[in-house]
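does this look right to u?? guanosine-5'-triphosphate version
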Amino acid sequence: GVEMCLLLGATGVGKTLLLKRLQNLSLRDHHSDVGEPRPGQHRVGTNLTDLMLHKRKLTVRELGGCMGPIWSSYYRDCSSVIFMIDAANTCQVSASCVQLLSVLSAEPLQNAAVLILFNKLDLPCPMSLVEMKSLFRLDDIITCASQPITVQEVSARSGRGLQDVLQWLESHRPSC
Ligand SMILES: Nc1nc2c(ncn2[C@@H]2O[C@H](COP(=O)(O)OP(=O)(O)OP(=O)(O)O)[C@@H](O)[C@H]2O)c(=O)[nH]1
Ligand SMILES: [Mg+2]
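got this back:
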């Protein structure tokens, strides 16, 4: 069926803003109505957004942090996962780390490509990204995980890094 990417992350990390920005960017790339929000943004517990990539359509499904207990019911249909972290919210980091580990160990996601985004880099971060990554034991996680994992720093607000996110989506075609 439709190619699906899951967008996961704790409450308020910036998932919805990221999707809006990516949608505008991908529309601009295809020279259609710039700035016009497209129809088809449903709000039925999860938020579905269609992105037009080169020669294909990708649907991104946002699942909010408070839906954590049912995230796994959506794992079957997806080929890639974006896991978002608010780099300016250190109180959330350890909880996010636990969630990330459970995502990576989920059986249906063993072949999914994973992109970890540290968002809100426009804000003054109470912790350096190096500290965040070591708190997350990110290097260990990446070494032990069966999935290919990419880590990226972005700002959904300023737009920093978002073209790279599109490129990542572009280059990761379904393998499961
Ligand atoms: N400064 C800054 N604010 C951001 C950034 N990304 C998102 N925000 C803000 O953070 C708040 C939450 O953003 P949302 O996109 O609604 O977060 P979400 O992850 O969809 O949250 P839930 O759907 O509740 O889980 C909003 O006020 C955004 O404008 C960013 O990169 N920088
Ligand atoms: Mg949201």
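The chain has one domain: 13-30+38-171. idk if thats expected tbh
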